[in-house]
Design a protein that fits this description.
heterodimer; A: about 170 residues; Glutaredoxin; about 40% helix; B: about 120 residues; mainly alpha; Helicase, Ruva Protein, domain 3; 4 helices
Chain lengths: ~170, ~120
């Protein structure tokens, strides 16, 4: 009995290891930070794009309206793709779209907005990319749906029609 | 007179330089323990991506604000999760990671001990 138990347990261990590795092969090896909601809006001083004024983020997201914070840049190709979605969303009275202009020059950013339209109620100028880090972002574009100073949903990558419908259902 | 002036200048410059060197060493130590999320497999220290460069600036700012190494790790951990640290702290998500080698060591030790006793 004992003689059979040892090879059996070895086989079991190998099968377990094989299953773990086999399952692991199907997982993506690119880590994305968790997108769980409920985080509070970070309270940091930021520079406004148009006025160069320094304000606290809590002043920007003060009302109980819904806000969509969108990190964008003129050099970012996926930002062009999602711009029409932002233009569509900004028509909604319950939603204010706020932009973080990420590692960009004012000239290029202005040209981008002239060409595609300006969906933003306010823009934060983040030429060092440090403001985006406060939000836990690591690239462009990324968007955060905010209500009552809390992030209720995070979108990594360009917004699409599906995410637009989801945002609309949130702000109804 | 000239010599005393010279020494006075040296006396003023020296502590500033040591402080800067200390900060630089701390910044390097911290950025070597932060994982770049864009070019995964590289530390923030090694990476030259936009994200890593911004992270280096944030680390610099936090050191200048007087935050300790532990507080800076905690800051990044709260933003990006445990994955950003190459040396994750001991918490409920990492119990298994930290305790498994110890467990294997003790089980292995127990088996060897058992065999020696039998002999």
């Amino acid at each position: 009995m004992k003689n059979k138990l040892i090879p059996l347990s070895i086989v079991l261990v190998f099968i377990t290891i094989f299953i773990i590795f086999y399952k692991g092969l199907q997982n993506t090896n690119i880590y994305t930070p968790n997108t769980k909601s409920g985080f509070e809006v970070p309270s940091v001083s930021v520079k406004l794009f148009n006025s160069n004024e320094i304000v606290n983020t809590l002043e920007i997201f003060s009302s109980d309206k819904f806000y969509l914070l969108n990190i964008w840049s003129s050099w970012c190709v996926p930002c062009r793709q999602e711009h029409s979605i932002l233009m569509e969303l900004t028509k909604n009275d319950n939603l204010k779209v706020i932009g973080i202009n990420y590692k960009d020059t004012k000239k290029n950013a202005n040209n981008f907005l002239k060409e595609l339209g300006n969906p933003y109620n306010n823009i934060i100028f983040d030429n060092e990319g440090t403001n985006a880090i406060e939000w836990g972002a690591y690239g462009v574009p990324e968007s955060f749906l905010i209500n009552n100073n809390k992030i209720i949903k995070k979108y990594t990558g360009p917004l699409n029609k599906g995410s637009m419908e989801e945002i609309k259902s949130f702000i109804k | 007179m000239k010599i005393s002036k010279f020494f006075l200048i040296i006396l003023f410059i020296l502590p500033v330089n040591t402080l800067k060197a200390d900060n630089e060493a701390l910044k390097n130590k911290i950025t070597k323990n932060l994982r770049c999320l864009i070019c995964q497999g590289q530390s923030v220290y090694d990476s030259d991506s936009e994200f890593a460069n911004s992270l280096k600036i944030v680390v610099d700012n936090k050191i200048n604000e007087g935050l300790s190494e532990k507080q800076i790790y905690y800051y990044f951990q709260s933003k990006y999760g445990d994955w950003i640290l190459y040396d994750p702290s001991f918490n409920k998500n990492t119990y298994f990671l930290w305790l498994l080698p110890l467990l294997i060591f003790f089980i292995g030790g127990a088996i060897i001990f058992n065999k020696i006793l039998k002999k």
